[in-house]
Amino acid sequence: MLTLRWYLLALLLPIGLLIAEWIPVVQTVALVYGAALLVITWLDRRGAGTARQLVIERTHDQKLSLGVPNPIHVILQNRSSRKLKGIIRDDLPLDFHTDDHLDPLTWECPPRDSTTLTYHVRPLHRGKFALGAVHVRWESPLGLVMRQAAYPLGREVRVYPNLYEIRKYELLVRRDQLAGMGVRTVKARGEGTSFASLRDYTPDDQYRSINWKATARRAKPISTDYEPERSQRIMIMIDVGRMMRSPIRVDDAGGLSWSMAKVDFVINSVLLLSYVARRTGDQVGLMVFADRVQQFIAPSPGGDHFQKLLEAMYALESQPVESDYGRAITMLRAQQKKRALVVLFTDLSGKRASDLLLRYMPSLLPHHLPLLVTIRDPALDQVVADRGEDSDAVYQRAVAEQMINERRLLLDSLERRGVLTVDIDAEQMSMAVVNRYLQLKRRDIG
Predict the structure, then answer these.
(1) Which of 37, 78, 166, 402 is 20–30 Å from 423 (CA)?
(2) Topology agreement, domain 53-160 and domain 233-442
(3) What is the pLDDT of residue 17?
(4) What is the pLDDT of residue 194?
(5) Residues 235, 336: contact at Cβ < 8 Å?
(6) Which of the 8 DSSP states describes residue 291?
(7) CATH number at 233-442
(8) How far is Cα 296 from Cα 236, in angstroms, rounded to an integer?
């Protein structure tokens, strides 16, 4: 394709022919100029080379994380003897939100060298997705022509619940910096007092974890893992009914807006809670329900149990039906005989749901300890904060205030009956739930 530079040069030809109406000799010059431009353009196009002079590779994590920026790297290898520059456009699924405002990406690469371009995508749904071809354009030597080629790098990727939070948590645990993540710590595996195992030392291990006798015996640094003195059970219930399908809009610090379903915020929170609980030595189970129970995974020890939970959450989908709390809680009481901390994630969706929660959540006591986690609706807070004085604004504000008050009354009533509650914005849910769990862990409740 021809570039803007070519069109600007070509514009001189009709200008010359127009001037030739008064100065005839300019016509000959203009025709020679036009012929020369065509020849130079042809030579410049040949000099641009072919798609074979570029080798393109796309790399990324095998498992992408839901709702957070995931880095995608495009590696360009320039096999030609000249510097190349141009633009790249990547074929992405519609459910992948790009955060970088770079569409397309610009690039340049020295001769016989390579360069790496990095951008980020934020998947807004879990599941399997297909990445398409990488489309590359590059300029000819004189910049008159832009060559283009599509590199067939299509492949399937899977989007899982937020794995980045787990990696971040693990790194900060090793560096003893969990406060920077907003987590109030409790003794975790590797930090208790009961011996568990020996393993190779890593640079992020705390100095006091080094086992000097084992280090001397094996002639390499060895760390000691400890485990907490008492293993407890955590039973997590995820509501995937109709109200959990509604999206929540998020405006991040960078000025970007995106939306994700309530159930996906919940699943991200459940994944981190499950990992933290497992790391502190607790056993985690999972129940997924809507109008009926869809999945039940009993609490269990073992390293492969967390992977089982991850795969179960990967495939979850919300359902267009009303949630039956009574049916789910009745089944949980029948299946989970041993005492557990029961964490129910849901949304308060009306009087029927409120009545069912008031009836069935306290029934878990005293054998279990129930904790209700609800997602606060930011739209209601925005309506209440709007100080408009017209009749519509006043009416909407009154309705929103009534809904917030009814919600608070329900939560207060549950707490008076012994049910613990966390009512929190979706973005803050993961840390709030983990901190509440660790608080209960410190008090040895569950």
Answers:
(1) 166
(2) no
(3) 81
(4) 45
(5) yes
(6) S
(7) 3.40.50.410
(8) 10
d(CA 188, CA 176): 11
Give the DSSP letter of residue 183.
P
SS3 label, residue 4: helix
Q: What is the mean pLDDT of each run of 10 residues along the chain (446 residues)?
A: 84 83 82 87 84 91 90 93 90 82 80 92 90 90 87 91 78 53 49 55 64 74 62 92 85 70 91 89 93 93 85 88 92 93 88 86 92 84 70 73 81 91 89 89 66
Determine whether 50 is exposed, middle or buried from the number of CB atoms within 10 Å of its CB (0-12, 13-18, 19+).
Answer: exposed
Tell the residue number behind the tokens 């209700």, with chain if given.
372
Distances (CA, A) of 16 to 20, 30, 144, 350, 366: 6, 5, 20, 76, 94
Quick check: 226 and 190 in contact, CB under 8 A?
Answer: yes
CATH no. of 53-160: 2.60.40.10
Q: Rounded to an integer, what distance in angstroms lies between the CA atom of residue 225 and that of residue 216?
A: 17
Structure tokens that stand for 354 in this block: 């409120």
Contacts of 271 (CB under 8 A, 6+ apart): 161, 162, 163, 165, 166, 309, 310, 313
Residue 51 and residue 151 in contact, taking contact as beta carbons nearer than 8 Å:
yes
Picking from 167, 183, 267, the residue whose alpha carbon sits closest to that of residue 435 is 183
- Identify the DSSP state of 138: E
Indicate the pTM of the whole model.
Answer: 0.75
Reported in sequence order, the residue ranges of 132-232 that DSSP labels E, i.e. its strands, are 134-139, 146-151, 155-160, 194-200, 222-227
Helix axes 378-385, 391-416, angle to 10 degrees: 130
CA angle 375, 402, 388 (to 5 degrees): 100
Tokens of residue 131, six digits: 């990445």
**Length, in residues, of the chain:** 446
